[in-house]
Amino acid sequence: METLVADPDASRTLRRHMKEQYTMFFNAPVQGAPPDINPPIPVACTGTVPPREPAYRRIHTYAVDHSFSTRLDTAAMNQAVLNVMWEKARTRPPGRIYSGNR
Fold it and tell me: How far apart are CA 7 and CA 10, in angstroms?
């Protein structure tokens, strides 16, 4: 198989087919195959993609008591999900303890 893939007198279609069969059978690429038969795999992404901030912050709330959520007949009326617009957190000076009082 390797000899046939490397043979320049064989047709390109036959050489590509043998390369695919070789890869399926041996679970490895053909060593020394010409670049037109075994092209390098293109890179999907060249840089890093920064994660986006979500549009909303999902806050789960309880209407009456969190124990009502354990029963099927009262769980639907007891829980709610609030979509609150996402805001960046304010930064505090380093070394200071935030007490909650301003």
Answer: 6
pTM above 0.70, yes or no: no
- CA distances (Å), 85 to each of 19, 25, 89, 92, in order? 54, 54, 12, 21
In this structure, is residue 4 part of a structural domain?
Answer: yes
Is 90 part of a structural domain of the chain?
no
- Is residue 34 situated within a structural domain? yes
Q: What's the domain range around 24?
A: 1-39
Give the containing element (helix H, strand E) for 61. Answer: strand 56-62
pLDDT in tens, 24-71: 888 888 887 887 777 777 777 777 878 888 888 888 887 777 777 787
Q: Residue 61 forms beta bridges with which residues? A: 80
